[in-house]
């Protein structure tokens, strides 16, 4: 089985959701078609009319409040939702394992990563290909046409060829994890700085922030978020390279484009761009520095993190946000992230039409408008953030620009790159040539 790079998705989720794994068994339903919903959002199928049904739904998405699901119930008479929230990480992982093993997987559930693929392979997830051709929950458009295609591609890119994602729709992205820079606009204004439109302006801002005695930018390497910086730079210097290219020998980490990105990151580190304790600081330490106004910029995912910053900044401090500008001018300047959260429907649900209706609701513009206050980036196309919400606007813009694919080696070599070689390079404990040479030697050894 061919393995694809997964470090990017994992680094985005560390400290936020954890990596989820699971397995199960069952028989995949072949009839995935649903009658769809009328544009008003009312259920147009017969599932609710024939008999009252109760859908079991489970996720780790803490921002799904009872009133949102009550809205679905009110708009779909006869359908009730029995929702269970389970904390992310091991708790959710174990819950899914237990439910699958006992043949009690919920009608609708959240999934991601290796759990997603595992359940596909055991025929526990319903193929939504036909349902994607039926009307969306709140629009006359086909459901599939309302979902950001970049996120669907990203969701499928982590799957192996065995599950044939190109000819199936195994799940629907629920929101998008995108990364932008949240900054202290009050500090910026005081220094006469504005959000940068070029990387030169970004570096100029950082120099002035440092001269003012501030830490210009976060690194947060304790949870793997420091890895984002190399990935961002590689998307400009090696955009055509994929993880598979390292397996075949088509690309090497010692190639000029890869080395150039590492050199640029080293220069930024040596210039004092990042938190000097960023190699060991994690989310808690980084948030504290930002809230205490010791650090001016924080590269961060949305949802609970941004909400925490907004609620804990000193009174009178204004925040702004921007997507990182293109380093070498290659547009669009893509962001990190993608479809890490996925809505799936059980292949064994006894209420297929109603379950698909709930999945449509969860991935509708109606739902994402309701979740705007929780800083959830939508997975629908053409999303317009609430007027005046500049932070959500930045996340939405970044998502529209597309997402960086993995340009680094996977498996053992990828771990060595980010956990050994890169820290030693940045801290001056090993030269770029020597450190990357060791990573490439490991790739060559494992490829034999």
From TrEMBL:
InterPro entries: Bact_solute-bd_prot1, SBP. Residues 1-21 form the signal peptide. Gene3D superfamilies: Periplasmic binding protein-like II. The keyword Zinc does not apply. PROSITE patterns: PROKAR_LIPOPROTEIN. Keywords: Signal, Transport. It holds the Pfam family SBP_bac_1. Belongs to the bacterial solute-binding protein 1 family. PANTHER family: ARABINOSE-BINDING PROTEIN-RELATED, OSMOPROTECTIVE COMPOUNDS-BINDING PROTEIN GGTB. This is Extracellular solute-binding protein. It comes from Cohnella rhizosphaerae. The lineage of its organism: Bacteria, Bacillati, Bacillota, Bacilli, Bacillales.
